[in-house]
Structure of Pyridoxal 5'-phosphate synthase subunit PdxT:
Amino acid sequence: MTDPTIGVLALQGDVREHLAALRAAGADPVHVRRPEELDDVAGLVIPGGESTTISKLAVTFGLMDRLRERVSAGMPAYGSCAGMIMLADKILDPRSGQETIGGIDMIVRRNAFGRQNESFEAAVEMAAVEGGPVEGVFIRAPWVESTGAAAETLATFDGHPVAVRQGNLLATAFHPELTGDHRVHALFTQMVRSAH
Ligand code: GLN
């Protein structure tokens, strides 16, 4: 049986780092920029970057509707930071015209940790990831303001959810792709294999 192909949404953000982390986790990832490329993947990573830019480019490139269709049809997706925002059903403080793909019943607050604390690292204990805490790299990160019943909080920091799973969707406010620790990407790769 061949391994299902995982795509990385390559509109903006730290695409290369996610491709490398997926490779290290045993997957063979591809770039996704065009709607046709989305048809060929069994799962999708949405990188960290700038969610307003990713949102605008997804609309411009004709990807937004197809992304929503695939996600609501059950395609596994993992979003880090800006990617977490893209998977949220609602943004508390969206920029004008900013849209999300949605799928996770949660409300996120952008740039939530504030100016004093724009970027920091912290050990984060994450349910579903064995072997001790993951090194959470937070860069102008969102936090999750509230979750609906279907969304499972996998990790919290400062009293706020920072890792959430709902069905085949996974989101982290932090960037495991920047740490050399591939356990979160291994978890997602496993979710894609199980869903296939
Ligand atoms: N602050 C960014 C946003 O709102 C996210 C930052 C990141 O992905 N590191 O999209």
